[in-house]
Amino acid sequence: MIKNIIKTTDYLKSKGFDKPEIGIILGTGLGQLIKEVDILHEVSYNHIPNFPTATVEFHKGKLIYGVLEGKKVIVMQGRFHIYEGYSLQDVTYPVRIMEKLGIHTLLVSNASGAINLDYKKGELMLIDDHINLQGSSPLAFKDVGQLGERFTDMSAPYDGEINSKFEAIAAANNITLRKGVYASVVGPQLETRAEYRMLKIIGADAVGMSTVPEIIVANHLKLKVAAVSVLTDECDPSNLKPVNISEIIAMAEQAEPNMIILFKELIKSL
Q: Nucleoside phosphorylase domain spans which residues (predicted)?
């Protein structure tokens, strides 16, 4: 992996990806932040050596380098999931590349379902902690110790200072920002009623199919990290209706302007 990382990093440096400060991963239905970036360079994933390729139809497939609120950023327009057939090392490979290029902070967005029924679809949730239900770890491979400490501490995986800034920005802009625990599952199937009940019992406020692997690797690399979910549906096992994916995407897009405000104002303050 180390040789691959060097090859990928050298390629992106040759394309002008020069010492980004902040990495951003855009989740499902959350691509409009790109319009706020002064784009300097962009490369399709399938042109980058050793990079996975996004296969989900509503995920783009570009790595973008530019300036946002005066900071050099590198943006993943589209992310990878293990339900696409990738390994956890594949899913998190871009985080390792962004760190190697120079980022000190990683900001992540996703779409998720509300397990906590006090939370409503269309609202945002600041992730304060998580539960890994994906069955393995992106750090579970032989040579991981060459890239960082094998036994990575996860007592506070999300940066408290950044989370406090997010909350202050939300309050100043009258944005409802919930705070809670995100459970990450494999997917791609949605949960059963019994699974939603289980998730509530074990303390999850929201559930999705991404984010946690990237957060684990970011902590392994000692990056500052924060994540925000758009709650796209309400997962009430007593009143469960068939899921409409197009409605979920539409709900993410509806909530996106508030997400953009949070990310822009935060980046301005970093």
A: 21-268
